[in-house]
Structures are given as structure tokens and as C-alpha cells.
Amino acid sequence: MKLVKTVAELQKIVKETKKAGKSIGLVPTMGALHEGHASLIKAAHAENDFTIVSDFVNPTQFGPTEDLDAYPRTLEHDCKLAEEMGADVLFAPSPKEMYPSRDMTWVEVTGDITKVLCGRTRPIHFRGVATVVSKLFNLAQPDKAYFGQKDAQQAQVLKRMVKDLFFPLEIRVMPIVREADGLAKSSRNVYLNKAERSAAVILSKALAKAKAAFEAGERDSAKLIALVTEMIQTEPLSNIDYVEMYQLPDLTPAEKTVTADHLLAVAVKFGTTRLIDNIILQK
Amino acid sequence: MKLVKTVAELQKIVKETKKAGKSIGLVPTMGALHEGHASLIKAAHAENDFTIVSDFVNPTQFGPTEDLDAYPRTLEHDCKLAEEMGADVLFAPSPKEMYPSRDMTWVEVTGDITKVLCGRTRPIHFRGVATVVSKLFNLAQPDKAYFGQKDAQQAQVLKRMVKDLFFPLEIRVMPIVREADGLAKSSRNVYLNKAERSAAVILSKALAKAKAAFEAGERDSAKLIALVTEMIQTEPLSNIDYVEMYQLPDLTPAEKTVTADHLLAVAVKFGTTRLIDNIILQK
């Protein structure tokens, strides 16, 4: 596996790879790779001739009070894991490489899809994501790009961006990878102290309970939301940002009585650490 | 030459063309093709294996009081001219094909480059241009894309967009094509009545005078601007929107004493028709 730090070098490699007629899989990450990322890289490697993993903590998707500086950076570990999972290139550019101009060129998906859920408290987040992912798409020119279902809203936003701007690629969304006790794998889990780590398991438990209720026939969206909210609130260390349901794919308002596919998503703080998790309720 | 009206059909043709290892030239137009466009198509045909001309009056780059409905549509003529110049495909989609979602995904180049000149009176114009051209780039996947120097600011904005978002292609900017008396070819020239048409020649005359002064050694930007302004004002039917100079490539403020490459650009109304023209002052 090759560690690539400049745009020019990546462009050269991609040009040669395309010329050789190889298919390309891209796994965009912010580094601090864990088993969730590993599953994406493994899938990319299985489904494509050439796998590029990007490893870039993207400043434009962090708000001014968010954890940009604290975000874990583990490049050496990331290289090892990406190589083990079959990556051909790990692309780890500097912010200056990715943002060459003083003024920005933004890519922005508008509408409810970026305003609800995390978009409400993180108003610039998805503009930063759409912008950096557009750059990565144009650099890596992938046939398929891999994202985790853990960031459910991000996956929907990027699918919409690909549809609207006609990017010639397929977005593959892979299932959430969880710890043994159910906590969704996240680079931010390292922020949790011991008590918060134990408490955080309530998210997956509450969502699993809603899924079980749904599968047993509960179709009242308000009741499903209440069930999750009340269960999370039994955990004293939890501080709910949202527990919400939206229709897929465009995150339009939930039906009162669920008949179509819905996303049930939560964002909850434990101390200063904000965690997200979700399930899809499929008719 | 094939007339293509759907995104799906264009995607199929592009996929086959890329697979065959052919290079692709793209000429994005709003139709109403004239000799200026013809020169772009001719260049694309000469420099690439396969030439795609798009013919789409893009609604998102027109302001609410602008000439979207009046804009000339001449599809039959466009097909004939594009074919004569060597185009392989004329892509003439409906607005619904190009904008499939209710909400927009925008591409926007920010900073002075889109705020000066036409950006001041047409605040949403370049966002619409950047968005539709991004879509066309992703659809046609060109090696080279062709634009006219007549729309000088548009060319600079798109070069910046390509640089910032890493589109894997080259922007080729071709010289202004003029009528025998000097008027720059434009699809909007058909709006001019006979008196306005005669009056409009003052633009190219004034710019040519500034160029001659520059070549004779005049380096004072204020004097060069005044020279153009005063000459245009001798024409009673003219109504100046702007006469301005900016440094290339990013349209930063002009130097007081010119040492680098500058754009000297004008926008002037004749009746209700707004015309633009420009020259580059090259050191």
C-alpha cells in the first residue's frame, strides 16, 4: 500500500489506474480508523480492482465550537489497518492541499435533508461534507464510494448529491459495526470516560427496543419515538439532542402511521461527547 | 450527429465512448448558436476524438427580472450548425432532466471573483452557471471543455471551480469572435433594433482604443478605464452598467499602475439589451 500526501501524486496514480481499465473503490474517512471503517475498506477491496482510502480531518465540516483540534489523529495505525484490509492507496493530504484557494468553492445540498437531525445543530456540517466528498470524487474518480450507515443522514445527503450532480459512481452504504455490548463504533468513542462508556450502551438498546416493537406491529411514529426517548432518559448521564423519525430517502417528515421506509435516529450527549446512532424501519 | 434529450441516454453514450478509450470535448452552450459557438465546437472537434455540445437554457442562472423566457431558442438551426462543425452529440435536455430534485444541490464559487463585474447586478448568476456546468462535467466527463473569452468572468469562475474541486479536465478559453464591424457575437444581439445595433459597435471601438493606448505604454488603470468610459458615453443610446479592470486570474482589484495581466471589461445597455465585451491587457 502506498501512502500519498499530495493531490498531484494521487491524480497521477488515478490516471494510470483508469488507463489500465481498473475499477476504483473509494473509502472517504477522517482517519482514526476502527472496525466500522475496516468493513468499508474490505467491501471496497472485494468489489473493485483498486481501493483508495482517504484519511483527512476535514476542517470545513466542523463548527467553531466543535472538536476539530481534539479529533483523534492516528495515521500510523490507519496505514496498518487500511493495508491489512486491502487498500492500495491511503491518501492523507494537508488542508492546504485540499483547499488550494483563499476563497471557497462550496457544494451544498439544500432542503430538509440537510436541515433536520444533525443539520439543526450543525448548520455548516453537510456543506463541508458535500464539498470535501465532491473533491475526493473528482480526485479518485471511483466506480463505487463507501460510507457507513452509522452516519445515516450523511449517506442520504451524499446520495442526493450524486443524483443531483450526476456523479458517475455508485454510493454503497454499509451496515453499522457495533461493540460487543451494542455501542456503535465511532472515532469519538475514545472521548468517553468509563461511566459514560457504560451509559452509552442505552442508545443501541433503546433503538433495538423500537425495532422490536415495530416488528411486533407498532406503526405509530410518535409512540416509537417516545419509546426510545423514555428509555434513553432512564440513563442519568444521557443528555438528548434529538430522537427523531423521517421518511427515506429524502428525510421528509415521518408519517403518523408508518407505511414506508423510515429512519429513526438519535443524537445524545454523554458529558461533552455527542454520539449518534440509528435504525431503519423497513415496511 | 445524434440529438440526445435525456440524461440516461447521454450517460450511456459517454460510458461507451470512455470504454473505447476516446477523448471527449465538451462545449456547454445555451443554444442560439452563432459563429462564436461554432469556433468552440470546431476547436473541440480538432482536439478530441468525440465532441459533445450541450444546448440548454439554464433557468438557475437567470434572475427573476432577466430574459429567461425571451432567450432565443433555435434547436433546429443549432443541430445543423453543430453537425457542420463536427459535433458527435447535441445534448438538449429539459429543465426537469437537469434538475431532478425539488430542492437544489448548488455549486458556488465564493469571493470577489463572483461578486465583481456581472456578479454585482446578477447575484445568483454564477451559482447557476457553476451548478449546471458541474452537472455537465459529470455527465460528459470531458478531457477538455470549451468556453468563450466573451464571457470572461464566467471563464475565470469555471477555472477556479475546476481548480478547487479538482475536476479532471482542462478548461479551454477561445478568443472572442466578432462581426465585421467589431461587435462581439452574442445570442442577445438579435434583441437589438437597427439604431441600437449601430450604436453597440462603440464597445469594441472603445476597448480597442484602450488596448492601443496600453500597447503605446499607458499603464495607469484609472486612465485606461476613463478612456473607455468616455468613448462609450459619446454614444447617446448607451447606458453603462460597468467599465472595470481587475487582475487575472482571480479578479482581484486592479493595480494603480499595471504590471500584471488585467481584464478590462464592460457591460452596457442599449435599450433593454445588456451587452458585455472585454479585452485582456497582457504585460
TrEMBL record, chains A, B:
Gene Ontology molecular functions: ATP binding; pantoate-beta-alanine ligase activity
Binding-site list for (R)-pantoate: Q61, Q154
Keywords: ATP-binding, Cytoplasm, Ligase, Nucleotide-binding, Pantothenate biosynthesis
Pathway as given in its UniProt record: Cofactor biosynthesis; (R)-pantothenate biosynthesis; (R)-pantothenate from (R)-pantoate and beta-alanine: step 1/1
Cellular compartments per GO CC: cytosol
Enzyme Commission code: 6.3.2.1
Active-site residue numbers: H37 (proton donor)
InterPro entries (alphabetical): Pantoate_ligase (IPR003721), Pantoate_ligase_C (IPR042176), Rossmann-like_a/b/a_fold (IPR014729)
Cell compartment(s), UniProt: Cytoplasm
A GO BP annotation: pantothenate biosynthetic process
UniProt xrefs under PANTHER family: CYTIDYLATE KINASE/PANTOATE-BETA-ALANINE LIGASE, PANTOATE--BETA-ALANINE LIGASE
Note in the entry: The reaction proceeds by a bi uni uni bi ping pong mechanism.
NCBIfam families the record matches: panC (TIGR00018)
Descriptive protein name: Pantothenate synthetase
Source organism (scientific name): Succiniclasticum ruminis DSM 9236
Name of the encoding gene: panC
